Amino acid sequence: MFEPDRARPRxxxxxxxxxxxxxxxxxxxxxxxxxxxxxxxxSAWLSLQCNRTSGVIAGVLMMPPPGDxxxxxxxxxxxxxxxxxxxxxxxxxxxxxxxxxxxxxRIGSESTAGFLIALPIGFGSEPIxxxxxxxxxxxGAPLPAPETLAEQLRWGAGWLEALPWARRSTDVSSxxxxxxxxxxxxxLIGEQPRLQATTIVIANDLAARLRCDRVSVGVTxxxxxxxxxxxxxxxSFKNQSRLVDSIENAMEEALDQRSSVVYPALPxxxxxxxxxxQALTESVRMSGVSVVSVVMRGGNxxxxxxxxxxxxxxxxxxxxxLKLAEATAALLGPVLALQLRANRLIAGRVIxxxxxxxxxxxxxxxxxxKLGVILALTAVVTLILxxxxxxxxxxxxxxxxxxRAAVAPFDGFIRSAAVRAGDTVKSGELLATLDDRDLxxxxxxxxxxxxxLLQKKGEALAKHDxxxxxxxxxxxxxVESQLALADEKLARxxxVAPFDGxxxxxxxxxxxxxxVEKGKVLFELAPLDSYRLIVQVxxxxxxxISAQQRGxxxxxxxxxxxxxxxxxxxxxxxxxxxxRNSFRVEARLAELNSNLRPGMEGVAKIDTGQRSVAxxxxxxxxxxxxxxxxxxxx
Length: 634
Hints:
Blueprint: H1 30-33, H2 38-52, E1 56-63, E2 73-77, H3 84-97, E3 101-103, E4 114-121, E5 129-136, H4 146-156, H5 158-189, H6 195-209, E6 214-220, E7 226-231, H7 242-257, E8 261-263, H8 275-283, E9 289-297, E10 303-312, H9 319-342, H10 346-362, H11 367-385, E11 387-400, E12 404-407, E13 412-417, E14 424-425, E15 430-434, H12 437-463, H13 466-492, E16 494-496, E17 501-505, E18 515-516, E19 521-526, E20 531-538, E21 550-555, E22 558-577, E23 580-589, E24 601-612, H14 613-632
Antiparallel strand pairs: 1-2, 1-5, 3-4, 4-5, 6-7, 6-10, 8-9, 9-10, 11-20, 11-24, 12-19, 13-15, 13-18, 14-17, 15-16, 17-19, 20-23, 21-22, 21-24, 22-23
Helix pairs in contact: 5-6, 5-9, 7-8, 12-13
């Protein structure tokens, strides 16, 4: 079994002793650690390498400066280097041959034994520089072997090999900072729906981010000039002031050169013209101010505006700030271009669409669009030049030319109905009968009365009573007239067809036994061989028709048969149908069909002559526009 360890007190001998070793920052590595720039760093490194190696009397370091692969920066040690020319020749030879080069000639005024050595430093196929040193055997010290010295220099070159990585790290950090700043600005202006508010936000935010005294934002007009839209920390400004004119001139100077302009100029902008920027500083008494103008471009490369930055010369613009300003302008350009297009009036948008269409039509691409436009133009020209038959269309109804009504001859009751609407009848055919029982009784009554009077007349004749004979004869004539009336009524209880035709309306089969009044229409009849066509022509089209014009009609009951027609009469009578006025036009059918029936409806088309096809298709719209213009225009 394991026993637990008992806690034992630690003695002072078991406690580790800590010592603090002070370093001298001004020692040999102090120059490398505290170097303010790459030139001082390279000078400190060369001085350190030469001082660490005994016998080294001179050295030179050749490195290309950052961003320039042609010129070479040279660092020499000591300040009065008597062997500089020899060392540089040997260094150039080593850089050309990409290997260690050694010159074993005697050096110095006394031809002291020694040698010169140069070797490329770095890794890969492209060295980052060349170092060359001169060694002598002065003082009796032995000379180190060239291989040993070269190895020692390679070990010390790690400081120099870290320089490109430091440059890249600085560039990446700067790029990240620029990107973050630009994204924050984009997020801020994305909340602004209007162009004026967007430009004000841009001016104020850039003035704070870049620590500028004043930032101005201008946008281009259609003629290419600049219009100042916002000045940082200013709610409003006078458009006709001297300051505004000078700022706009400076921005236009940058737009004309299509590049950024800096005054006083930086080394990278010395070739740009900055006369307007100089005039700006002199006109508003800003001689101690540094000015930068950068150009904003849209997505298609069109210049949409410019941004002008101002600082005191004590805090003048450097290359890093210029790059940040240009990157910000490159991101803001497309956003302002979109807002400019969105804030334009309808006329401006129409002009843009026309310009885009012409560019697509006249450009080298989009052959399908060009082919479609050519076909459309060909079709339009064909429609304008080609002629077609202009025809006026209207609803039509077929009616009988002669239409006869069968009416009730007297008050009575319907006894029977032999036909109804739609039946074809012959002349004299029974249509309906009325109840004749009351009329038969009247007939019998008057016959009895006549017989009675005839008997009285005979008695008067037997008595030769001349006066009574005259009275009885007058009574007999009265009774005979009543009897003739009863006979006539009995004959008229039979309602017959007056001619061969068709029953157009009337159906008494459901009203047998019902009373009818004298003169009530019981049936309507029309002949089968004589018709007229009623066409309803719109008031817009009545001006194009006249009598004797021809056309065709198709009825709903037989749409496949097109029957010719001839207009016979245009009546000045209008009919309201579906909110439109139509004129009643009568026409005759040139050909008859056995299937025709009165009351059939269809569509008639009247030929009015040859007209342009384009006019035929657009006539209705053009006439509507003319009427609307006459109605609403003063």
